[in-house]
Design brief:
The complex is a heterodimer of chains A (about 80) and B (about 350). With about 80 residues, chain A is α+β, with helices and mostly antiparallel strands. Chain A has a single domain, classed as 3-Layer(aba) Sandwich (Glutaredoxin). Chain A is built from 3 helices and 4 strands. The radius of gyration of chain A is 11 Å and the shape is globular. In chain A, about 40% of the residues are buried. Chain B has about 350 residues and is mostly helical. Chain B is about 75% helix and about 0% strand. The longest helix of chain B is centred in the middle third of the chain and has 36 residues. Classes of the chains: A alpha+beta (about 80), B mainly alpha (about 350).
Chain lengths: ~80, ~350
């Protein structure tokens, strides 16, 4: 079970990232759980200073931009 | 017969983005060069305008300024997008941690201009800086410079007023960020940061991404799509308001109200600017028209800086990490800085 966390306080880009991530996981046929982290304090604890960001199993993979679907697939597989 | 590559293979190939970018620069230059005669011709070809001199003036203003400003905007947003791909908040934080005051304040202000920043992530950034050992005053220098010295504002000032005013804006904006951060650092306000902030143990964060040149060019193109896509209606609206003032408000109408002789105009401008929140793109064409009608540069610049640098939504976000007293000091010091700049400009120019 992959734990996918999308970090961001609710901007449009965070939603795009969440949608893309879910799509990537479905495409890959992964067993996953997706969570949106919107609390600014929790986001800070990840050491993230620019949103949106994506963490896979607690490890931050990308910060401050929305990667492409292919990039996300590489990050989560 | 030579095969003409279509755009898709062009962008897909290794050299693709750079070729496309160079070609776009060429087209941009040609269009920009012919913009003035083109716009004059376009205004002249609207039938019946000759009988309405005021409407004609307004239309001429809009038809020339709108494409010019949008073109400058696209160019500068692209360049800044590429430059910013070299700087990340992580990298900036590494450069700033453990820096002494003064040097730290100066460096933080400069980095504030080139580091990608959105006021929506001001809080994580604030915490990230403090927990990594960046002094409070230095962190403030960054947080003031990042929104205040705005690339969109800079390009509009350059386009509408020339390089001197643009340089003054850049210089004074940096000056305020450095000084305000320095003063806030000297006041020893560490205890006015919410206590829990100091207890956060944050992860290191991810390593920097190293992008190839193609990726940087793409970042520039993405920035154009994103920023220009968001601000163009505001720019057009701003220019339309500017065009109206240009055509219909009498010369010197504002001189008594917003001119140099009205000493109260600067503080009023700063106070009015705090609750207002607009992006630089929309406000500068209005500013241009105001100045034309007799408002003084210092007053208008103070208003603009106050609108951009002190915004209510950002203050509300920062309240999560700062106690009210520190918010007060922050607004006070920055507002005082802007006030001084306003008076200085009115005095010198």
């Amino acid at each position: 079970m992959k734990k996918l966390q999308v970090l961001g306080s609710g901007c449009a880009k965070c939603k795009t990232l969440a949608d893309l991530t879910a799509k990537a996981a479905v495409d890959l046929g992964l067993a996953y759980e997706i969570q949106k982290v919107t609390d600014l304090i929790e986001i800070s604890q990840f050491g993230v200073m620019a949103t949106p960001a994506l963490a896979v199993d607690g490890e931050v993979k990308v910060v401050g931009r929305v990667p492409t679907l292919e990039e996300i697939k590489k990050m989560i597989s | 017969m030579a095969k003409i590559p279509n755009t898709k293979t062009l962008l897909g190939s290794k050299l693709g983005p750079s070729v496309a970018v160079v070609a776009s620069f060429g087209v941009w230059g040609v269009v920009y060069y012919f913009l003035e005669p083109l716009s004059r011709w376009a205004t002249g070809s609207i039938p019946g305008l000759g009988e309405w001199p005021r409407l004609r003036n307004a239309a001429a203003f809009f038809i020339y300024e709108a494409p010019k400003v949008l073109m400058l905007l696209v160019l500068i947003v692209f360049v800044v997008g590429v430059v910013r791909s070299f700087f990340s908040p992580q990298r900036t934080r590494r450069l700033l941690s453990g820096k002494k005051e003064a040097t730290g304040n100066a460096l933080a202000s400069l980095l504030g201009v080139v580091t990608p920043f959105c006021s929506c992530s001001a809080v994580p950034l604030f915490i990230g800086f403090l927990t990594a050992g960046v002094p409070l005053g230095v962190t403030f220098s960054f947080l003031i410079a990042a929104p205040m010295v705005n690339e969109v504002a800079l390009v509009l000032l350059f386009g509408l007023f020339g390089w001197k005013v643009a340089a003054l804006y850049l210089g004074t904006g940096l000056g305020i960020a450095m000084l305000a951060g320095f003063v806030l650092g000297k006041l020893g306000l560490e205890r006015q940061v919410e206590d829990w902030v100091w207890k956060i143990r944050a992860q290191e964060g991810s390593a920097d991404e190293i992008l190839p040149w193609n990726g940087r060019l793409r970042a520039g193109v993405a920035a154009v799509g994103e920023i220009t896509g968001k601000v163009w209606p505001w720019v057009l609206l701003g220019i339309a308001v500017g065009a109206f003032i240009h055509g219909y408000v009498p010369e010197n109408f504002l001189a008594s109200l917003m001119g140099k002789s009205a000493w109260y105009s600067v503080p009023v401008a700063v106070l009015l600017g705090i609750p207002m929140y607009s992006n630089a793109a929309g406000i500068i064409p209005v500013v241009h028209a105001l100045i034309e009608k007799g408002a003084s540069l210092g007053t208008v610049l103070a208003f603009m800086m106050s609108v951009i640098a002190l915004s209510l939504p950002e203050l509300i976000l920062l309240r999560k990490v700062l106690k009210p007293k520190l918010i007060g000091f922050f607004v006070g010091v920055v507002a005082t800085g802007i006030l001084l700049i306003g008076y200085l400009f009115n005095l010198v120019l």
